[in-house]
Amino acid sequence: MQIENRTFPILETDRLILRKVTEVDARSVLKYMSDNEVVKHIGLEPFNTVVDAMDEITWYQTIFEQGTGIRWGITLKENNEVIGSCGFLNRVPKHFRTEIGTELSKEYWGKGIASEAFEAVIRYGFENFKLQRIEALIEPENIASQKLAEKQGFIKEGLLRNYEFTCGKFDDLYMYSLLKQDFDLNESQSNE
């Protein structure tokens, strides 16, 4: 996932600006990542301090610099506060695949914001990174994320048993995937 001249891309949708998360955003990141409901299904303990948020922001910068991923901060156009993030991780360039993940402040759940951000990131990945496959690994209890993935055309491929060890326990994860040709087909059908 080489990004030309290392400039962080900004994505714009009808309601959102997806941009780089910086140290200035640490308190905003802490605000939603300290909520147990937000982090419950993403393999992290709730954040307690600004240092926890800074560690997360440093990770975003590291995966961007190493070319293994990219994480956009989700902001509403009318205000620049980061209310969540969405992006790619665990990129495998030689196989043209990556994983996608997102989280969003609870006060914005159920408003279509995660879906809008997810779609913009997916489109960017297929069009600019020339991906063939995007994967979403989702805990079976995380019904909202399963619906989000399915709404974007992801197919549930199966259950990965005890796939990750996070927060002191083994997690089963559903493997979802979206292929470039599936995305192109969905795009052409929605334009008809």
Largest sheet: 8 strands, mixed
Q: What is the fourth-level CATH superfamily? A: Gcn5-related N-acetyltransferase (GNAT)
Q: Structural class, from helix and strand content?
A: alpha+beta
Tally of strands: 8
Which whole number gives the mean pLDDT? Answer: 93
In short:
GO terms for molecular function: protein-N-terminal-alanine acetyltransferase activity. The protein has helices spanning 26-33, 36-39, 50-66, 113-128, 143-151, 180-190, and strands at 11-12, 16-19, 70-76, 82-92, 97-104, 133-138, 155-166, 169-179. It is α+β, with helices and mostly antiparallel strands and 192 residues long.
Summary keywords:
192 residues; single chain; 8-stranded mixed beta sheet; protein-N-terminal-alanine acetyltransferase activity; globular; N-acetyltransferase; Ribosomal-protein-alanine N-acetyltransferase; GNAT_dom; 6 helices; alpha+beta; Aminopeptidase
